[in-house]
Amino acid sequence: MRRDAVSPYFAALKDVRNYFALLVLLVLSCAGQQPNREYLMYAGTYTRTASKGIYAWRFQPSTGKLTTLGLMAETAHPSFLAVHPNHRFLYATNEHENATEPGNTITAYAMDASTGKLILLNKVSSRGVGPCHISIDKTGKTLVVANYGSGSVASFPILPDGRLGEAVSFFQHHGSSINKDRQQGPHAHCAVISPDNRFVLVADLGADEVFSYRLNSEKAVLQANDPPSIHLTSGWGPRHLVFHPNGKVVFLVSEIGSRLTSLSYDSDRGTLRELQSVSTLPRDFTGVSTAAEVQVDHSGRFVYASNRGDNSIAVFSVDPKNGALALVEHVSTQGRTPRNFSLDPTGSWLFAANQDSGSIAIYRVDSESGRLKPFGGLVKDAPEPSQVLFVTGE
Prior knowledge:
This protein is mainly beta. The protein has helices at residues 3-6, 13-33; strands spanning 39-45, 53-60, 65-74, 81-83, 89-94, 105-111, 118-125, 131-136, 142-147, 152-157, 169-172, 188-193, 199-204, 209-216, 221-231, 238-243, 249-254, 259-266, 271-279, 290-296, 302-308, 312-318, 325-332, 338-343, 349-354, 359-365, 372-374, 385-391.
């Protein structure tokens, strides 16, 4: 890794750390004044077995108390969820593996803040097979979906009443890579909107590329960027990505290669350049494992990645001087196949969704070290959980 290439993006991180330290104190102060404040927490699921759809809880971050609300909406395979910026609407992918099954849609709901219940607004075609990830832009006017099975991306207008219009942009990816079992064609796995709301980055597992699109949020229209993509190491299979709080670095997890990669991000051009790549697995691991999710804490000091097979969360520190990644620890998720995990809005808690063992594990986050400490028992109210999403109601 070129350390001099990374350091400019982290030169002000010390000041950012001071800022977030003050912010944490303010949050704690507010928590002291409102000790019973709660958030809604939703879980997307696969409905192959006992699950019926989207489940919810109330979560009290000051104590870690979790109150089950039950099934909020009955729907098929709501594998990924996203909340509107106004916190009044929720959207879910209905993911199916082939075009002959019913589904491959995106469903829009209105949220009842008092009960957590989801009220169906409408449903539209995702324009592809296996919609597995959605993002909503900062204006709340555009939704973007990544269709894994068919390797495509589409954008949709969000109407003032929360309903979705039909797709106004569609791009079919092309390409393959060296893993003949997993990469015989394109597989778009996430579509993430840049912090400045000008670009959409799409990680494609099958093509080993991250595509870049320009976003016109007013019209909900995407346009291919120039250059259109960056090619990563063949066979790694890029899956999910997240922006550092400074907006100048992207952390990308590759599923097949079990790699965590940092990339510099040019916000003017919407382009990426690789900086560093590290394994997400323990050095002595010898089994079969695939990486799944990646998250960065609010301060930008720690990055987390999940391993399915090793069934762990890998914790990495981010060097404040040059942005270099260093392993902190691996923590068991206490279950099988941690497809997704999420940090709560305070950054003090991490919830890991173990898809194949039907459980959600809860951890306290140490703000100084980034380490995770298991808290309480496993949550088993949502069979086949695929994602955890928090809604603050603000």
